[in-house]
Write a structure and sequence with these properties.
The chain is α/β, with parallel strands linked by helices and 159 residues long. It has six helices and four strands. The protein has one domain: Metalloproteases ("zincins"), catalytic domain (Collagenase (Catalytic Domain)), CATH 3.40.390.30.
């Protein structure tokens, strides 16, 4: 279902526990827990995420999370609808800057757990083909993210 990689940061069992809990709920919510889809989550530094952002998005700036889906939304929706999971498939990659997560948790006045959980669920829904650039797309994606976090009882401003 998922693999966690560390790039230039120390391994951390607490991070892994949060990621596992959130991704398990995401897979359950989207009814893909019995699929052979997998996600790679890479936890890294602002410097590394800045390099990746520049290389793939031509944006020379550190960001909090990047997502690289392997399927177009229509293709994935069809695969899920038809339960076409005969073979293992990679849903995509999520890359998270742990330092940025820590900064944003302080900035938004909520827990590290809440901020990391949000980055994971946000990245997951990008892999599922959702976006938030246009307002009408945001109205679909945000409630999905909120539902996962609410069901896990991970609240904003919950320090």
């Amino acid at each position: 279902m998922y693999e966690i990689l560390y790039e230039d940061i120390d391994e951390n069992k607490e991070y892994e526990k949060i990621i596992k809990k959130v991704l398990s709920k995401c897979f359950e919510e989207e009814k893909i827990q019995d699929s052979k889809l997998s996600i790679t989550v890479t936890l890294t530094t602002p410097e590394n995420i800045k390099k990746i952002n520049k290389e793939y998005r031509k944006i020379e700036k550190a960001t909090d999370v990047l997502s690289f889906p392997m399927f177009e939304k229509d293709e994935l929706d069809c695969k899920i609808k038809n339960k076409d999971f005969q073979y293992e498939d990679i849903l995509g990659d999520i890359i998270i800057s742990i330092e940025k997560v820590k900064e944003q948790a302080v900035e938004y006045e909520h827990s590290f757990e809440r901020e990391l959980s949000y980055m994971v669920v946000h990245g997951f829904y990008h892999l599922m083909g959702y976006d938030h650039i246009k307002e009408e797309d945001k109205k679909v994606m945000r409630p999905k993210e909120d539902k996962i976090l609410n069901e896990l009882n991970i609240k904003r401003n919950d320090i």
